[in-house]
Amino acid sequence: MGVKPNKAQKKIAYDKKLCKLMDEYTQILIVGADNVGSTQMQNIRKGLRGESIVLMGKNTMMKRSIRVHAEKTGNNAFLNLIPLLVGNVGLIFTKGDLKEVSEEVSKYKVGAPARVGLIAPVDVVVPPGNTGLDPSQTSFFQVLNIPTKINKGTVEIITHVELIKKGDKVGSSEAALLSKLGIRPFSYGLIVLSVYDNGSVFSPAVLDLTEDDLVEKFSMGLSMATSLSLQISYPTLSAAPHMLINGYKNALAIAVETEYSFAQADKVKEYLKDPSKFVVAVSAVAAAAPGGAATKEEKKEEPAGEEEEDDGDLGFSLFD
């Protein structure tokens, strides 16, 4: 039998493993591991095997290894991980798509009973219906102010009951009731808390953004930048077309009010002097266009002909 490594040797081996992973991977998911069992963790490791590696450990050891690695390699980007190593957390090193890996991690959630003293992660509501319990348990429901009735020799809950609110501690009575009813209200698994990608750290909510969301946010930002540029008269690529059009409008207004003129203003002045020319031009364009005024007149004449034919039919006497 081989000699078991001591604590010092385990720390050295852990340090080498973590440093090697930081050399090979540039993408890391920081995950919370509260209430995650060993069997559940093994299933997660199997599900991620191939492109991702899950590494758990003490926060102090991880922080020390990251600092040592940064000093040796000069890559200080990994130092951004240190403030995130708080509580029961682990690291998932991956070369795959971050969103897909995050979705894969979320699949491995396991239902759990409400144990006394736990902080409820969600609201717990007991649905109405037959509990299957005998009438001797009625007093138990009365303690929790749950309305019941006896139906066919068993206790039946009448209405929905909000038993535990999110953020509240689970009491002994609530835990006992849920256990009797066979309700496992909570589910636990690895929860992605933060994402590290090539030195940048951001919220996992960013992974849910689609291309349409990015285009919408970019358009909104571009619109705000354009408005600001126009307001302070600072030329930018997005504001330049608007500035040129506004400048043309101002120059045209001055030309119309004064004797000064330029090529683009001459036509406008001509129309202002004789608006009938503009009307004639519009009429000519409408007549030349397919389905113009002439066609419309022809279409209008067709119903008139139909009416005449109808009138002719009605002109006959009933006795002819």
TrEMBL record:
Q: Which Pfam families match?
A: Ribosomal_60s (PF00428), Ribosomal_L10 (PF00466), RL10P_insert (PF17777)
Q: Which residues form the Large ribosomal subunit protein uL10-like insertion domain?
A: 114-183
Q: Which UniProt keywords apply?
A: Ribonucleoprotein, Ribosomal protein
Listed GO cellular component terms?
ribonucleoprotein complex; ribosome
Q: Which InterPro entries match?
A: Ribosomal_protein_uL10, Ribosomal_uL10, Ribosomal_uL10-like_insert, Ribosomal_uL10-like_insert_sf, Ribosomal_uL10-like_sf, uL10_eukaryotes
- Residue stretches of biased makeup (Acidic residues): 304-313
Q: Where is this region: Disordered?
A: 288-320
What this protein is reported to do is described as: Ribosomal protein P0 is the functional equivalent of E.coli protein L10.
Of which family is this protein a member? Belongs to the universal ribosomal protein uL10 family.
Q: How does it assemble?
A: P0 forms a pentameric complex by interaction with dimers of P1 and P2.
Name of the protein: 60S acidic ribosomal protein P0
Native species? Cinchona calisaya
